Amino acid sequence: MPILFLQELPIYTLLLLLVPPLYYLYTRASCTSAELPTNWPILHMFPSLVANRHNMHDYCTRVLAGSGRNFRAHGPPGTGMRFFLTCDPANVRHIFTTNYANFPKGEEFAAIFDIMSGGIFTIDGEPARRQRAKIKGVLSSPQFLDNTASYCLHKTEKNLLPFFTEMASVGTPFNVQEIMSRFMFDLAATSLFGVDPGLLSSDMPPMDAARALDTVMEVGFFRHIMPTSCWKLMRRLNIGPERKLSTAHGVLRRFVVEMLDRSKSNKCHIGNEHLHADIMSPFHNDPDYTNDELSRALIISYLVAARDTVATTLTWIFYKLGQNPNIVSNIRNELSPIASRKLASSAGGIVIFEPTETKSLVYLRAVLYETLRLYPPAAIERKTVATNDIMPSGHKVHSGDTIFICIQSMGRMEGMWGKDCLDYKPDRWLSEDGNKLRYVPSHKFLAFNSGPRLCLGKEIAVMQMKTVIAATVWNFDVQVLEGQSIEPKSSCILEMKNGLKIKLKKRAM
Ligand code: HEM
Predict the structure, then answer these.
(1) Which CATH superfamily is domain 92-390+405-506 in?
(2) Which of 280, 334, 422, 492 is the most buried (most CB within 10 A)?
(3) DSSP H helical ranges for 377-443
């Protein structure tokens, strides 16, 4: 350990010595137009990276739009910062499918998300294939899918809609991002432990574990843009964001232990039915998964996969619906035939739509996809180059280079989506007659990843989002409060930095 520390010292000292010139460059290097990052002596493009860390996704989009969808960037010598940025679908297909084995996530990625070490997000090759097969077996089993759909409906009916009704009756604005985060945390945790932690319940307890997951994603983002030696040294000294992360790791460890204890005695029920916690069951008798740390990594990976992504997307959908009353009307028109069959039996004038009823709704799915095109929750993918290669775009990449695939930028390229690429238009996903969804290959619409590591929860996520949006849009008018600053957080998950304040009004039926 001390030897490692000394090895890191020179780079860290160099960076400290460079603080004054860095600050000077920082104030000059902020990129506000389509210009490309300046290549400074010694520091190269590091100042631009640091200067734009608060608007990184927009920055990447501007850089990629200005450079023909591919861009090579590097930091100071000795830091290992050799990056290739791309949002080119041909390159994406090459990286994620055609030559998939040459582009692992790599050790650096695994180190960045050390709390999930050994979990599906941080591993490559055969171990990833084996773990994926086990998770896939669970996530596609009819019993798990039924349980997940039932619990989503139950939670919507018993917790979400009563909260919305209360807020509408008093006319109080609230932060819908926090409510979605609570809601999805409960759903994800229930699938894991068979116990609902009750973050969205009448007493609204503190959401320490959910906040700790946010911290993992924020500090993960910081680690992506810093030289490895720099964040590792900060971790050793327990300073800055690393101190916050270490506290968050402690919170998550305690949460997992507590939930595992509760799950032994206190299973969730819907009616007389037990909700089984079966995500972890294929791992119980596997000798490769006996250690507690690895089990924790699997649990936390699942919480990230299932909570962060859906809660974030739902928040952006509310934002866009608040701005587009015509789209809200279209959703209601699609729901209307189902609702008319249910109105007479609805309790308190509230209508709730079952997953089996919303499954075939094409326009609602187009709304979800259009939101994911502009606001993919996992906005950037990171890969490492195993051996030298040439991209379909003609760019050479070298062993050890890091590739950042900018998923949000992919959804915002005029050459790929047309002149109206920045407009929110669910119709672009529909066939001429509006009855079918257009096929868009996953290497162009990368929100759910592509190739052998395609998201395993896509249809579960669609079911959950349809349930929430259908119930909310049918029963309430959503008003987004004016004057809010809406911008993404500097995080690996595209959450809103300041949340989203909305007001609800119960619709008269
Ligand atoms: C809007 C919702 C969602 C989006 C946009 C999304 C997107 C993604 C993306 C981009 C990846 C690749 C991540 C990476 O390798 O770095 C991924 C992987 C994964 N997702 Fe999702 N996801 C969503 C919801 C879910 C849900 C609800 C579940 C579980 C029920 C889930 C389970 C998984 C799993 C297990 C993987 C790992 C697959 C592998 O590495 O082989 N996802 N997802």
Answers:
(1) Cytochrome P450 (1.10.630.10)
(2) 492
(3) 407-410, 414-417
- What's residue 2's pLDDT? 39
Q: How far is the CA of 302 from the centre of ligand 1 (A)?
A: 9
> In sequence order, which residues have a C-beta less than 8 Å from that of residue 65 and are 6 or more positions away?
34, 409, 412, 413, 414
> Cβ–Cβ contacts within 10 Å for residue 317, how many?
25
Nearest CA to ligand 1 atom 20: 455
Q: List the structure tokens of 85.
A: 């940025």
| Both tokens assigned to 436 | 């079918």
Give the nearest ligand 1 atom to 465 CA: 1
Q: What is the 334 CA–ligand 1 centroid distance (Å)?
A: 28
- Strands 82-86 and 402-406, bridge-based pairing: parallel
Pocket flag, ligand 1, residue 212 (CB < 6 Å):
no
pLDDT in tens, 269-325: 665 556 655 688 788 778 877 788 898 999 999 999 999 999 999 999 999 999 999
CB–CB of 490/56 below 8 Å? yes
The pLDDT score that the predictor gives to residue 4 is 41
User: 371-392: buried (b, 16+ CB within 10 Å) or exposed (e) per residue?
Assistant: bbbbbbbbbbbbbbbeeebebe
User: Which atom of ligand 1 lies at the shortest distance from residue 372's CA?
Assistant: 5
Q: How many CB atoms lie within 10 A of CB 307?
A: 23
Q: Encoding tokens for residue 95?
A: 């990286």
Say which amino acid occupies 432.
Answer: E
The residue whose CB lies within 8 Å of the most ligand 1 atoms, and thus the one to mutate among 221, 283, 309, 312, is 309
Ligand 1 midpoint to CA 458 (Å): 7
How much distance in Å is there from the Cα of 276 to the middle of ligand 1? 21
Q: Which residues pair with 282 in a beta bridge?
A: none
Give the closest residue (by CA) to ligand 1 atom 11: 455
Bridge partners for 479 per DSSP: 503
